[in-house]
Amino acid sequence: MSAHVQDVFMLFGDSITQGAWEPGYTGIGQRLSHVYARRLDVLNRGYSGYNTEWGLPVLEQCLAKKDAVNVPKIRVLTIWFGANDACIKPSPQHVPLEKFKDNLRRMVDLVHSPSSPFYSPDTRVILITAPPVNTIKRKADLESRDPPVELDRLFDVTKAYAEAVLEIAREKDVGVVDAWAPMWEGSGRDERELSKYLGDGLHLTEAGYKIVYDSLIQVIAEKYPDVHFERLGFAFTPWKDIDWESPAGSLDLKKP
């Protein structure tokens, strides 16, 4: 018997997604799990170090076939890549910009194309841009390692990959969270001040995740209000509504 009876909110991406539940601070994972409790199961499908080229075949394995039965439905799917794809050569994580955009298209099409074996038109797809990179802190972090590592990311290159995500979201008419702009503006357009959002120059602090969470909830409210947590009922009956005399019949899973 499967333990996953509720429908799900799946977060798919790289280490920035994987770290969304990291202990010590409140990331986007905890916030979403809290507001969607008893409504949707929030799943962490973040893979540290992955780019879109490696993520694409993994996403196929995370999705249920369209004719599958008795499996939870993915109601919301966030796709958050770009930070690793934007690595500069000779990094093995580098994915050329046009290939990156094509991979994002293919990820969206896995869910929204009628010809896809994973076609799920009711799944709400939301793309998230890479945040800015603080090359000052990133360089210091890499140089402190044994042996030292050369800087693997550039500010303007990462920005181009963030802008590409916005482009693909418009093209595919899916929701998008711009993680770049509010962090850059919030830092006063000063790369050194990005440290409030990026602890090591690349990965988000609690403040960084809070910006993404707030933007994500706003996108859901405006573009996909049917899956906003305030619009979703509990998957199982609130205790006060249980038929206390004959509870079994009132305790069935409620599917939308």
TrEMBL record:
Keywords for this protein: Hydrolase
An example Gene Ontology molecular-function term: hydrolase activity
InterPro entries: Iah1-like, SGNH_hydro, SGNH_hydro_sf
Entry-linked Gene3D superfamilies: SGNH hydrolase
Coiled-coil residue spans: none
Any Pfam family: Lipase_GDSL_2
Record-annotated SGNH hydrolase-type esterase domain positions: 11-211
Listed SUPFAM superfamilies: SGNH hydrolase
Protein name: GDSL Lipase/Acylhydrolase
Organism encoding this protein: Coprinopsis marcescibilis
